[in-house]
Amino acid sequence: MKEILRVLSRSEAETKKFAEVFAKEILKLKQKTAVVVGLEGELGAGKTTFAKGFAKGLGIKEEMKSPTFILMRVFRSPTSRGSRTSGRHFFHIDAFRAELDFSEFLKSPRNILLIEWSDKVRKIMPKKYFQFRFKHIAKNSREIRLYA
After folding, report:
1. For residues 135 and 72, which has the higher predicted lDDT (pLDDT)?
2. How distant, in Å, are the alpha carbons of 24, 52, 95, 116 from that of 68?
3. From 3.40.50.2300, 3.40.50.2020, 3.40.50.300, 3.40.50.450, which CATH number describes the 3-147 domain?
């Protein structure tokens, strides 16, 4: 994978806003399969904060929490036109403790998978996906790198 973007986020709010903007761009993609976004970084690096902003960018109004104890949460996302019936499915997956078989979810272009700890399931990740790597820089600052 090639690094295509590097961002320094100085707050949770900046991380959420960056993720929100990225999610809105994802909705514009024309795909034949699901869009997959992998998040990597140590505990507390900003993965769940990013997921919250990403969900907001998809139009999801429900509160986002880390799926650590349930492993996966599924949300219905309205499209950019706001139609509930033509929305997409957003899968928020935590791969830290388990290897889930999410291959079935990869088939539909209506699906968007955001996988925290994607490095734990790298062998079952699709060939093409967006990979974000998070690194602590200071108490509130994170370096976010995007690879594709």
Report:
1. 135
2. 25, 14, 8, 9
3. 3.40.50.300
